[in-house]
Amino acid sequence: MKRCKGMVDVGRRQFLRGGAMATAGAAVAAVAPAQEAKAAPALAQIDYPSNRLANVADLKVNEPVDIEYPDADSPGVLLKLGQSVEGGVGPDGDIVAFSTLCPHKGFNMSYNGEDHTLNCPGHFSRFDVEAGGQQTWGHATSNVPQFTLRVDDKGDIYAEGCSDLIYGRMSNVL
Amino acid sequence: MAYKRQIDRLPIPPADAKVHNVTCHYCIVGCGYKAYTWPRNKQGTPENNAFGVNLNEQQGAMGTWVNPSMYNIVKQDGKDVHLMVVPDDDCVVNSGLGSIRGARMAENRPSEITLTQQQRLTDPMVWRNGVWQPTSWDDALDLVARVTAKILAEYGEDELLVSMFDHGGSAGGYENTWATGKLYFQSMKVKNCRIHNRPGYNSEVHSSRDMGVGELNYSYSDYEVTDTIFVVGANPMETQTNLFLNHMVPGMQNGAKFIMVDPRRTVTVNAAEEVAGKENVLHLAITPGTDMVLFNALLTHIVDNGWIDKEFIANSTFQGGEAVAEDSGQPAGLGSLDYAMETCRTSLGEAAEICGVSKDDIVKVAEWIAKPHDDGSRRKCVTAYEKGIIWGNDNYRTIGALVNISLATGNIGREGGGCCRLGGHQEGYYRPSDAHVGRPATYFDRHLIRGGGKVYHIWACDHYKTTLNAAEFKRVLKKRADMVKEAMDAAAGGTREELVDAIVAAVNAGGLFVVDMDIIHSQIGQNAHVILPACEANEMNLTSMNGERRLRLSEKYMDPYGQSKPDCLIADGIAQNMERVLNEMGNDEYADQFKGYDWETEEDAFMDGYHQGNPEVTYERLRAMGNNGVQEPVVGYENGKLIGTPRLYADGKFDRHGREDKKALFCAAQWRGYAAEGKAREAANH
Ligand code: SF4
């Protein structure tokens, strides 16, 4: 039993340390009506939908595919880069997906196939899709959100999560 | 690999969250933000919140959104509260735009909860037993006052060295510059002092001021209605971001041409080309340091083609030849346009050769600046410059040559005109006269390196990182400060009197007693004996003006971190302790000079300083003016509003030089090659 208590403590400490996450948990608890909260405690994390985006066979190297995730109001891009990158999935480890709303002011970005960046028409910010959406120049104060991908046995690609807050939302899942 | 925040949800500020006006303290532009704070256990809902928008919906571009960088948990009145600092759509400076600096204000606040900014100083510290020991304000200020008073009383005020910031924004502002100014220029008459970014107490743009033209004379809106934007030695897209995005870009969209003089191609040039089209942008990649020749050729071409503003020149500029002669303390003569042309006259061919650009491009620039429109109406041109020439070759004459063009074309004091530096930090200068410093001012760093001074007070300056010849400055200061540290270590366990005597003996042997005021443990602070923790904007109320002289009150929304205090109250504490110690020493007359510092808040310091010179301006009135504030100088108060001045010299009277006739002067900017020793060799080797 000693071990169980220790686990609880570790969990509690981690919970308290992440300021923004801790309050996020609280947000859900209050939105739900009181009786429901009693019946089923609110979850600490957002539940993301698992959405099929495409099949590996549909993708061609450096040809961006427009996607929407986690819902129709959140545009994104699915890319096969032609070389394995950190966070890439699929047989070649080169498939990645990002939100295309610039995390500065929310303009819809286009993919620049020459240097593999997402470019913002609003205020010229640029993000490197080979480096996990790293901003290489611009005014955003976070990197571009990257969608978490999974590929099943049939080669179907699913989005199931997101690394950062998507522009224009206080919660990634509305 | 990119850093992932792994944050996918933020708390929602409730409708009754407190809202505070905030002016971004990071750069001179001074963008408006709103800070929302609310109790840790409260929250809004998507439908009912402080933003007044339905957060169940995806917000559009330029809409309301909070990046996680705009969120933190901080202390307010001793309690943990949520904090969001979000760009203000209604502020005319930025119209809701943030930047990579300002949009991080919240996460750059010190927090014991999210552990941001843990390098902030929390307690006064005194060198004791070989380390810095945290201590009380009383203890630290007593030691500072005892050593300082003893040295000043015995050896005079020239033995006190002072480095003090004179900026607005951040931890500066009218409150704090007034306090240090009052302490060192009124209670004392310290002349061995310097400013945060240059090794003397002097202006960076002397020539513009000597010509009668204060260097921040326009309104940012002038960029939106001008015909040409002429930028020299600056990179506003990166360093005055929202000035570029919210004023220069709309100007280009309204048809303005864009000229950039810079040896390098920058992102600013690229962005200008994307906005205005390549045909409307001209980048002159000139040979470094040759700007003056280019300006002189432009002026010559403009004068010879008659594209000058004759009426303006006749009414507003000096007419009688030479007004100020060149001498050892005056790097160029000043006078009428004709007088200046005698030395400025430069042919297109000469300029093309020296500057490394084509004659055609120089002609095109001159046309874009000054050639009248087809219907004969005059062209409007805004001129903007920064460090590329301010800290460049022969800067007095170079800036003078640039201001010459604006004066000759009547582009100062008029809508769509202006000749301004772009600036780095905001301004917040209000101090007693510095006339006793003299001109030229002491070359401070050289004085210290040569062994000058016995006590050194440093206010938020880190010269180890930034000064000229920093390596030598650091080596000498460390050596001199170490002598005092050793003396203090040897005196450990003794009385306060023995400690003070040991310090005085060490400084008389060539050492230096160093007191450092800062928000963090800086590099120069490594060699301090007493370290006093200051707080920043928004941990205190703070007033500053931006690059178009827009004065705002940036409101306090959180507690100063730890025991830290506003610099004005630290200066107040030093003065009060000086008075007490000097009285104890029996030096009552000197002690009395340190009276008049009974401030309890930063507002008291503001009322004691800035308000005395600008009696219309109070905190309450500024608060009511919100994030749009008022443009200085404030000329009245009517119907509950402060009345400001959109641009200086609108009446055609120039007074920055202090001349009775209020006529602007032209600068005899004769080219003399690279003025600093070794520059020509450096350029050749480049
Ligand atoms: S442009 Fe300057 S004032 Fe505006 S947000 Fe950025 S750093 Fe702050």
UniProtKB/TrEMBL annotation, chain A:
One of its GO terms (molecular function) is metal ion binding. Residues 62-158 form the Rieske domain. Keywords: 2Fe-2S, Iron, Iron-sulfur, Metal-binding. The keyword Transferase does not apply. The keyword Cell membrane does not apply. InterPro entries: AioB/IdrB_ssu (IPR014067), Rieske_2Fe-2S (IPR017941), Rieske_2Fe-2S_sf (IPR036922), TAT_signal (IPR006311). This is Arsenite oxidase small subunit. It comes from Jhaorihella thermophila.
From TrEMBL, chain B:
Residues 120-574 form the Molybdopterin oxidoreductase domain. It holds the Pfam family Molybdopterin. GO terms for cellular component: membrane. InterPro entries: AioA/IdrA_3Fe-4S, AioA/IdrA_lsu, Mopterin_OxRdtase, Prok_molybdopt-oxidoreductase. Signal peptide: none annotated. Coiled coil: none annotated. SUPFAM superfamilies: Formate dehydrogenase/DMSO reductase, domains 1-3. GO terms for biological process: respiratory electron transport chain. Residues 24-114 form the Arsenite oxidase subunit AioA/Iodate reductase subunit IdrA 3Fe-4S cluster domain. Gene3D superfamilies: 3.30.200.200, 3.40.50.740, Dimethylsulfoxide Reductase, domain 2. It comes from the Bacteria. Keywords: Iron, Iron-sulfur, Metal-binding. GO terms for molecular function: iron-sulfur cluster binding; metal ion binding; NADH dehydrogenase activity. This is Arsenite oxidase large subunit. It comes from Jhaorihella thermophila.
